[in-house]
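Field: sequence (string)
Field: structure_tokens (string)

Example rows 1 and 2, in order.
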Amino acid sequence: MRALGQNPTNKSVNEILGNPSADDLVNKRLGFDAFVPMLKKVDALPKGTVDDYVEGLRVFDKEGNGTVMGAELRIVLSTLGEKMTENEIESLMQGQEDENGSIHYEAFVKHIMSV
């Protein structure tokens, strides 16, 4: 699904698949005829907007200047919601921090959503 431009959460995928066991996830294959309706369900799920994500990051903007500390954002990305791996976080944040370790979160969100 991700290769087709969708980015469902793991929870959404598990629900669409009928909450399969870990063994089923590893050992069963999904045919094209079963995949297409699932892709349509994912496509119909509400998508977050730039404003939604900016508002979510604003709570970490302690100084009210449109920035968050990169270190704090790394912790959030690795511990809350869909937890990201260290490699995923580093790839996502590459080139985003300024000389003070801050990230302008609105530009960060726009960058992520444009990729």
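Row 2 begins here:
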Amino acid sequence: MITSFVNLLPILIVFVTPPLIGCTLVVAAFRLRRKWTRLTSGVFGSVFLIAFCIAVISFAPYLWASLLESKWYPANPKTKAELESYLSLYSQHDIQPLHSDWGRNHQLKPGERMTQYLLLWSAPLDVVYSSNDMIVAIYTSYE
């Protein structure tokens, strides 16, 4: 029981404390008597809530990409179809290696192509495929 609480403690600190503080400050802004304390409490509470929302929105693609990688990496996919069976919410387009953050030094051989999978605006996954859709190399930027 203690070890499960220790594992949950960082999650509670990161995901519960900021919105709780923000909500407390916003509610306190309606209860305080002095105008400057109401204003200060409301502003700080709003800033806490907005900053928390921005942080969650910013890190969500990374967390989703990490979760999907924890599924496809152990499976060691060999073909495009096998890899794409694990990817959801990704868009894809073919790119040149020099447009890849991690695979820019890869030299494409005849018949090979590099496909970039994007999750929203971030967490690219660059995959080099042969002409018969076999995976040659995989480059991830969220390692």
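free_text_note (row 2): Strands lie at 90-95, 113-119, 122-129, 135-140.
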